[in-house]
Design brief:
124 residues, alpha+beta, five-stranded antiparallel beta sheet, globular, disordered N terminus
């Protein structure tokens, strides 16, 4: 069943987000529509990575946000999250603490080559 936020979203139109693009709502909570968008972006990225021959696992923790887990060429695990920024949804693959000082490791979620960019970066 679709939520009111999902039903209100028109393909190609602005995405529903209270407070404007890139702003965090008081309390840091997300609507059902925003959680659905986050999940949909991760699933699409996982499918794109699968097309590149990369094994990807969608992790849905009971008490946290979903992440997409992949392995580098060396076998190290990388956790990819999707967050809302001023430019829209972006994928990032740095730990939360590294995002505070290494803000250059992200790619716009709508990019056609997001999977290629992410794998090139994590294997560099």
């Amino acid at each position: 069943m679709r939520s009111a936020d999902q039903a209100a979203h028109r393909p190609g139109g602005p995405l529903p987000y209270a407070g404007g693009v890139g702003l965090v709502r008081k309390g840091g909570t997300m609507t059902a529509g925003e959680r659905y968008e986050r999940f949909a972006h991760l699933v699409r990225l996982g499918w794109d990575l699968h097309g590149l021959g990369v094994c990807a696992s969608l992790v849905l923790p009971a008490g946290g946000e979903p992440v997409l887990e992949v392995r580098t060429a060396a076998g190290d695990p990388v956790r990819i999250t999707v967050i809302r920024r001023y430019c829209g949804w972006v994928f990032t693959w740095r730990p939360w603490w590294a995002r505070l000082w290494r803000r250059d490791k992200w790619v716009v979620a709508e990019a056609d080559n997001a999977a290629d960019i992410i794998m090139a970066e994590v294997n560099a």
